[in-house]
Task: structure prediction
Amino acid sequence: CGSGSPPAGRSGFSAGHRSFSSPPASPTKVCVVGGGPAGFYTAQSLLKGSPHIQVDIYERLPVPFGLVRFGVAPDHPEVKNVINTFTQTAQHKRCHFLGNVHVGKDITIQELMQAYHAVVLSYGAEGNRTMGVSGEGLPGVYSAKDFVGWYNGLPCNKELQPDLSHETAVILGQGNVALDVARILLSPLDLLKKTDITQNALETLAASKVQRVLMVGRRGPLQVACTIKELREMVNMPYTAPDMLPADFQHVAQALADLPRPRKRLTELIMKTLNEDHRGRQGVKRWGFRFFRSPLEVLPSADGSRASGIRLAVNKLEGVGDAVTAVPTSEVDEIACGMIISSIGYKSLPIDPAVPFDFKRAIVPNNMGRVEETTGLYCSGWVKRGPTGVIATTMNDSFDTARTILQDLESGAINVSVSRPGSSEVVPLLEKRGVRTVSFADWEKINAEETKQGTAVGKPREKLLDVREIMFSYGLCCLISQMTKILQSQMTLSIHSVH
Amino acid sequence: MSLVFAAGRLLSGASRVAWRKTSLCGDPRRTSARQICSRLVTGALWSENKVTVNFINRDGERITVQGSPGESLLDVVVNQDLDFDGFGACEGTLACSTCHLVFEEEVYHNLGPVTDEELDMLDLSYGLTDTSRLGCQICLSKSLDGMTVRVPESVMDIRQSGGSV
Result:
């Protein structure tokens, strides 16, 4: 990697950089909590912004990249190209990756703040919003977060074993996660076989009886939350046909002319599906939107053992523009289905009682990335602004937080006159607590093994699903204390061979 | 103060060398277009064929570089090691809009057709204009010699300059 020294003559930097021109006696130590896109983009920007900054990235899982590995759909390998840039960051001489550290449990934020000049919370949104309706806990009801984690090899979701034995699946939500799930449920197996989807998911999908996937949204076609790329993939998917209700599209055509281009193109693409009549076609799987509907109740089967349908309130819209809201009418609708996937949003969770948390918005309250009322604490990504947007949104947002930190270093708001020990104090402390960290070099061994296993079956990689398997395979098992920790963790632990 | 934008060339070396090997004009999935592009390059007189491109970066600074026919504008940014933060995150695979560029109207009309897939990604870009394209989809040719392209601000910069939270 580059030296990190700034080139001469770049406006803005040279002026800002002068305050560092007599370098601090010791490096500025910054800790990033979370090894997903927000963490890596923040680290990248910090390393680039000052040659005196050292960044340690702490990640709860033994493997890096967060939702790029565990969220991005397996049939979107091109989106995962950002991993190349993240790898460059992790390999930078002033950057260290420390996996398998559960911040908030293995070590507190306060301890990290004592060991570092600045701490950045980039831990994302591990929770999910719930529908809040009766029957939500019935077998057959899944959160999209778990379902995505299952097909993407997230260790804690590997035992999900979704029941795909019914013809109709209903997804609550119409965002890109909902479309990812619909696409995975309906994609021809031959396409999925070439992706890094887990072998376990592939086998379950091979036996799937799901023929129709309906995505339910509380508002109308003009408010649909997905982006056009994902919608076009549905439209173009082989052996499938759209299944829409023309009644949902009243007044949409008239509204088209006044829409900004992105919304207009998206709406036109949905409208196009209405004109296609596939009713007579045999052997074709169906996908569709159901608009103006909010969940009221998950309907149990006759014996009460599982979900057999969903009751929905029919909504009308009130207000104009982006502020339009759905208001339930007295009318209800029911859809019979054997599978319900709730995809109404991820949600950040508080990490440590010492950190302010806005429970209503489910974010860490902040001003341009500065955590309120806490000097030296910052945030980036979903925990900063909520779980929306594409990776580029998180990238810009993380660059923004890094800029804030650089400004605070320049202004003296972050006190760098005292040296901080960084990981040299934290790692021994973690070891004392039985936590064995996983380095980026360790991950590269895991990566090589996954790639090798994948190549053998014509896939880009075969993800290792078991934390214990990951640790055993690479000579990391020598520390009994580590195994004890893992055994005690909430992750699922049965030894599971991928093949 | 845009410290970050103005900063050094960290993280550039190795990744960019690797990229050079893999990145070719346009969407890698469209092999035929790629092959046509490379044939044009090998058949041409290299030295006479350089194409001058003027970039206006996010600080309003003009950067003049040369590329070769067959290279995409993203390739030019990468090969010339231009420091546009976050540019080309998906490495030219039509999976993001970070190589968004704004063209002069006259040049824009000479750029060739836009695919639906490119428009789809452009629709997600910040500061979309009527003459916006993705740099990864623009293949350099002699007819584009001397053009000026602007790297638009990202959303966070707009917010920053607006002074709001």
The mean pLDDT of chain B is 75. The beta strands of chain B are 51-56, 62-67, 100-103, 132-134, 147-150. The two ends of chain B are 16 Å apart (CA to CA). DSSP finds six helices and five strands in chain B.
